[in-house]
Write a structure and sequence with these properties.
By secondary structure, the chain is mainly alpha-helical. It contains five helices and no strands.
Length: 113
């Protein structure tokens, strides 16, 4: 139980880092998706919302719900390539910070952090 508790705390810290990196990259302030958009079955809801909406309102919110309920965390994710593509029009250094945060989340969930 203590290991799961610690893993949850680490993920909470990593999500805070991601939020700050997204704010710095100016992709945090985005319109909330509609209920219909949230029903998408496509990866990253690519057909109904932009990537920053998906990160903020789908991925981060799902992780927060898992943390709040103490649910088991996923054992892998690999989101950074999508971020690199979605934010290619943003300053490279700021995108790099977002990608680094996403890589750290992936490494943590995969047990490599």
């Amino acid at each position: 139980m203590k290991e799961a508790f610690s893993a949850h705390h680490v993920l909470a810290d990593l999500l805070m880092d991601l939020q700050m990196a997204m704010q710095d990259c100016e992709v945090w302030e985005c319109e909330a998706p509609s209920e219909e958009a949230l029903q998408s079955t496509e990866p990253f809801c690519i057909d109904t919302m932009n990537f920053e909406q998906w990160l903020r309102y789908v991925m981060i919110e799902r992780f927060k719900a898992m943390l709040a309920s103490g649910s088991d965390l996923p054992v892998r994710c690999h989101i950074s390539p999508m971020a690199e593509e979605a934010f290619k029009d943003k300053p490279a250094a700021k995108v790099s910070n977002v990608v680094t945060c996403l890589n750290r989340i992936d490494q943590h969930l995969s047990g490599h952090l």
